Amino acid sequence: MKRRDFLKSVSGLAAAGALTPAPAIWSAAKADARSETLLIVSESGPNNLDIHGVGTNVPGYEVSWNCYDRLITHEMKTGPGGVPYYDRDKFKPELAEDMNVGDMSVTFKLKKNATFHDGAPVTARDVKWSLDRAVSVGGFPTFQMGAGSLTSTEQFVIVDDHTVRVDFAKKDRLTLPDLAVIVPCVVNSELVKKHASEKDPWGLEYTKQQTAGSGAYKVTKWTAGTEVVMERNDAWAGGPLPKVKRVIWRMVPQAGNRRALLERGDADISYDLPNKDFVELKDSGKLNIVSVPYSNGVQYIGMNVKIAPFDNIKVREAVACAIPYQKIMDAVLFGLAKPMFGAAADKATEVAWPQPTKYVTDIARAKALLAEAGYPNGFETTLSFDLGFAGVNEPLCVLVQESLAQIGIKTTINKIPGANWRTELNKKVLPLYTNVFSGWLDYPEYFFIWCYDGKNSIFNTMSYQSREMDGFISGAVDAAAVGNTAKYDTDVKGFVDLAFKDIPRIPLYQPYVNVAMQKNVSGYQYWFHRRLDYRALVKA
Description:
This protein has 540 residues and is of the alpha+beta class.
């Protein structure tokens, strides 16, 4: 595709071209439109525009983050490699103009000039309805709110038209940070209620297809699997007006095509190229390349402990010994990740997450463990992955498939479309799969609440249950709330050791967010959700 044709197809400049103005005027208009439009290409796109929706995928987070506001957000600090990085412990107002934290509640004064995209004012009624919605819709949003002890609609109190109080259910250091993640976004309640029904009281079908927020951007066009177009909200009150007026986000499944668009200057940003491409692009020096470790994040192999033969701990240990860890690091990641394997045998457990296991590739040991488990000739199973992130997942699965075959485990690779991945994963019926999980709140206990807690945790997709594990997790949460450092340290070490002993999931590596940008694009910030924040981006 030629640069001219690409620009016409994504920015609507073709109609303007038919006017054939004087060359100098056309050049200036074209330059202005180009500098005000950010062209993004990625492997996959959103399956839902509402973070509260059923099975909303990771690309959907990006839409919600930029199109909806929260009461508060994080301050920024300097992170790895000098990249601006969210500060997990410091907050500032977004829709709120003032925040007063008490012993058992926090009160927010709303900005009186804040309006939704349709011009309606943002009121305390909208805030309460939105928070009520988050704790009531079920699934991921409700569990996310519960991770910060936000579980009841009674906790959200309207003080007056522009004041809301959030009452704490208990002392919990995760409560305030949980109000700054994507889920507690503020929705235009009066607009959405017009499209609600008895079967859909929260209007989820309406907000699946269009945004209804007060954020810095609004979706003006969405063709699922193809393109999302967002326009700046010039009345945004949540922060400084962004420099970029228009974001055009195109789904380009083939990595080679995404790279070509970048190298020709036809696209401004791509952030899910194969790691080999990022290494080569960085070496060429023609683009800005940013690589930042996922906060609180791990790519792993998960095994459903309720499905035979993965209900046998020796089978799980055998798989852990058969994983081709270093091959994955070299051939798939090209070094752009932090290994989560191969810790020294005498290494003490840290009060930290993530941290590496002591597993290494040992085929002989894997065969012996499989024989001890009663499977000397191996077995057949499926190995599933999210096709929306095939650039890493597919070669990773091929290497795992080849390695498991050496111990007699025959795997059929199951490629699940990205739009369906979260739904299929949460059914908890996949016997063997790879996935990445990154905890939005950068605390060890938060990761384990999501991934190892046996009490209906959404991302405990291994169906793992252990009273001892649950005790360590709840103990760490309670100890952190009251500042009992000694007990907190003991409980964190306890749940890490147990996770590595029972091995329902095998940590592979801590991924990096890799972003390729044109030299004239600046302002990239790393956020806990790992997606782009358009509000800070600038294009010269």
